[in-house]
């Protein structure tokens, strides 16, 4: 892997020396320094770093104005604030200005390096979700149906989209949180849900609520197993599932997410089942 290129923004030669020593000792490449807004613009345009450490108190400006200037040049550059000032108001403002992390001076080397590793690993980890998450969820569904109903399923169609669709009768939505947020949707007809719940319970459901509960727990197990498999691939994901939300009835519309998702249609002994999965960059956990 190429060295991560870093620019230090600070008006204190002492702080710059401390940060440079920490970063270079850990193998990072410090490609420039800046202490004013104009210097920030100049060095970012010239060096195009992957990451900037940003002091908050600078002559004639502040860290937020400089951060905005950095992102006007390249919105993909990550900014980590390194400042003696740190309170709830300033941290909230940092989030609003697309700061990726906040470290308080005096700098703890381990804290700084951990923040850089987390921030710079985001793109790589998101790519893992893009390539691996849907196959893993399909594997979890196949395995879950087999283990819980002693039957097999066949995937007969698969596609990607970000469109609204109309439910077949019952939809279970599982929210996913962690380094990135996402969702899993299971949609099926009421008849298919009744048939599957009977197989899951080893008897006919006593009432509609019991059938709904069986399908909610089925979806919860599928999503939980899939998230566990993904977490084993990279512990930094830290994926967790939220309690299921269940929608049922005629003409239920499932809203389109603000991110692209993958859908598979599975043919089971109980009827067809739709599974939809997707993750978004926008909900990354901020630390």
UniProtKB/TrEMBL annotation:
- Please provide the record's keywords in A-Z order: Chemotaxis, Phosphoprotein, Two-component regulatory system
> Is Phosphoprotein among this UniProt entry's keywords?
yes
All copies of the Response regulatory domain together span: 5-120
Q: Which Pfam families match?
A: CheX (PF13690), Response_reg (PF00072)
Q: Which residues cross the membrane?
A: none
- Provide one Gene Ontology biological process annotation: phosphorelay signal transduction system
UniProt keyword GTP-binding, yes or no: no
Residues annotated as carrying 4-aspartylphosphate in the record are: 55
- What's this protein's function? May play the central regulatory role in sporulation. It may be an element of the effector pathway responsible for the activation of sporulation genes in response to nutritional stress. Spo0A may act in concert with spo0H (a sigma factor) to control the expression of some genes that are critical to the sporulation process.
Spell out the protein name for this chain. Stage 0 sporulation protein A homolog
Task: State the organism of origin.
Answer: [Clostridium] fimetarium
Tell me the lineage of the source organism: Bacteria, Bacillati, Bacillota, Clostridia, Lachnospirales
